[in-house]
Amino acid sequence: MTTHCGFVALIGEPNAGKSTLTNHMVGAKVSIVTHKVQTTRARIRGVAIEGDAQIVFVDTPGLFQPRRRLDRAMVAAAWGGAADADIIVLLVEAHRGITEGVERIIQGLKDLPQSRHVALAINKIDRVEAPKLLELTKELNDRFAFEKTFLISAEKGYGTQDLRTWLSATLPEGPWLYPEDQIADLPMRMIAAEITREKLTLRLHQELPYQLTVETENWEERKDGSARIDQVIYVMRDGHKGIILGKKGETIKAISKLAREELEEFLGRRIHLFLQVKVRPHWLEESERYSEMGLEFKDGN
């Protein structure tokens, strides 16, 4: 049997639905999904099987105007994911249309080698009327020669099978890169840290989530089949530590419970999760923190 395999980079503005689409295509939660923007920091790969094709999704950070070192590392990771991919899919939110950010991304696509397959996926189509969708489709295709356009709802699954079918037919011939039952190539330690970070992001509605990171320090397999996971939440100020701990430790207990329950569901076994909060004022400037997130640390401000 002839097999197909390759990388598909999902790019777009923050909150365009890239993580939701990755999770829907893979059929499992491999990428952090929240209502907060800029939550995906590393290029998370999810692996889906469609017929004789293995589709490796590169869920890139959202593309936006970078201001800080972390922002620049995230944007570099996003364009790096696109440049390395066999197929690029630009996600645009139907109800937001062609924003300044979308314009910038289209300009960036024009600068990439022309040999790549580039498709357009207009997401959240349930939020707008058909005439507006048709108008947006035409405007976007006038700006860039997309090979194919898909109208989808990543959350509800509308149109996603058509996209999967096209991707599987368009990927190059070649052997599969991953075992059939593998859904992601991220180490489980990083997936576990992402799950905890998602719970922090959902619980804390201030700016704080962008000034913290979670690392899995220790993973101990136990004889009864369970696992003990020790994680550290790094924050930049003492005040942030207090917010995460909450009154009498209530906030961190709630976050730990939610993260543990999701980890148990994801891994299919009992998990003992232990969280610590440490203050590191300059973690955003430490190269090892970037390595933990799968990002490149660049010198300069």
Structure overview:
The chain is an alpha/beta fold. It folds into two domains: 4-170, Rossmann fold, CATH 3.40.50.300; 188-292, K homology (KH) domain (GMP Synthetase, Chain A, domain 3, 2-Layer Sandwich). Helices cover 36% and strands 23% of the residues. The chain is built from nine helices and nine strands. The strands form two sheets. A six-stranded mixed sheet has the order 2-3-1-4-5-6, sandwiched between helices. It has a three-stranded mixed sheet with strand order 7-8-9. A hairpin with a 5-residue loop joins strand 7 (212-221) and strand 8. Helix 6 (188-203) crosses helix 8 (250-267). The model is unreliable at 31-42 (pLDDT under 50).
Summarize the structure.
With 301 residues, this protein is of the alpha/beta class. It has helices spanning 18-26, 69-84, 100-110, 130-143, 160-170, 188-203, 238-245, 250-267, 287-292, and strands spanning 4-12, 44-50, 53-59, 87-93, 117-123, 148-151, 212-221, 227-235, 271-279.
